[in-house]
Amino acid sequence: MTMQAPTFTQPLQSVVALEGSAATFEAQVSGNPVPEVSWFRDGQVLTAAALPGAQISFSEGRAVLRIPAVTVAHSGRFSVRATNGAGQATSTAELLVTAETAPPSFIQRLENMTVRQGSQVRLDVRVTGIPTPVVKFYREGAEIQSSADFQIVQDGDLYSLLIAEAFPEDSGTYSVNASNSSGRATSTAELLVQGEEVAVPAKKTKTIVSTSDISQTHQARVPKVEAHFGSSAMMEIQIEGGIDFQHLAHKAPPRIPSKPTSKSPTPLAVVSKVATTRQQSPSPVRHVKAPTATPVK
């Protein structure tokens, strides 16, 4: 297998502890082969004689140093060093022991978020307190354990919940609970993860406009109108504006005979008809006797 130098995936975090309480340093380290771990205080190797009662452990890449009951004399700089054949790495943090106490207080609270499915989500809070509060994240009242999908990280007083890839089922109410010997504080917010929307193609529609509708459209321009009449007449109308029209069938207009004018001669057919229907007798002739001539004397 390929050798890999040690790397701290979760470095040490500074601790503020109340005098007489326990103080714990934790770090997560990776490397191949598995590195060896050593602890230091103010640059000196930490031994059981130098720090009586201290508990040191290293398992599955997790290095822990726990001091059951701290005093002001324990304040200082603590370091952990990881070493293997490929290299080494060091992480350092401060321990402050105080007689004062302060309940947890959120400097930065959770905020409502709306994200798209598949997005990375980061929920941040900043919290202070003496001694250093224990901070836990919850979803719908259930505590969230750090994992590949939900990672909890700390950087000083900044605590973050990282969701590598959010899905709609991750939506819900998230809360952070910070507690110490002096009190407790909670911050709550809503996370909404929206699923992917399936695009529905728009249906194409065809509008059929009748001639009565055309007369009511005042804004339509009619640049070209063609009408052809015949025994099987069709009328085609083209109108700008992207409206399709169907061919509308029309009956051929009736033929109306023209009225004869007064100047037009009477048709021969009419004259012959009149001649055949009106056969009158010749006009009667009166026979009148001529006067008789009177002789002259």
UniProtKB/TrEMBL annotation:
<dbReference type="InterPro" id="IPR036179">
    <property type="entry name" value="Ig-like_dom_sf"/>
</dbReference>
<feature type="compositionally biased region" description="Polar residues">
    <location>
        <begin position="274"/>
        <end position="283"/>
    </location>
</feature>
<protein>
    <recommendedName>
        <fullName>Ig-like domain-containing protein</fullName>
    </recommendedName>
</protein>
<feature type="compositionally biased region" description="Low complexity">
    <location>
        <begin position="258"/>
        <end position="267"/>
    </location>
</feature>
<dbReference type="InterPro" id="IPR003599">
    <property type="entry name" value="Ig_sub"/>
</dbReference>
<feature type="domain" description="Ig-like">
    <location>
        <begin position="104"/>
        <end position="192"/>
    </location>
</feature>
<feature type="domain" description="Ig-like">
    <location>
        <begin position="6"/>
        <end position="98"/>
    </location>
</feature>
<dbReference type="InterPro" id="IPR013783">
    <property type="entry name" value="Ig-like_fold"/>
</dbReference>
<dbReference type="InterPro" id="IPR013098">
    <property type="entry name" value="Ig_I-set"/>
</dbReference>
<dbReference type="InterPro" id="IPR007110">
    <property type="entry name" value="Ig-like_dom"/>
</dbReference>
<dbReference type="Pfam" id="PF07679">
    <property type="entry name" value="I-set"/>
</dbReference>
<feature type="region of interest" description="Disordered">
    <location>
        <begin position="251"/>
        <end position="297"/>
    </location>
</feature>
<dbReference type="InterPro" id="IPR003598">
    <property type="entry name" value="Ig_sub2"/>
</dbReference>
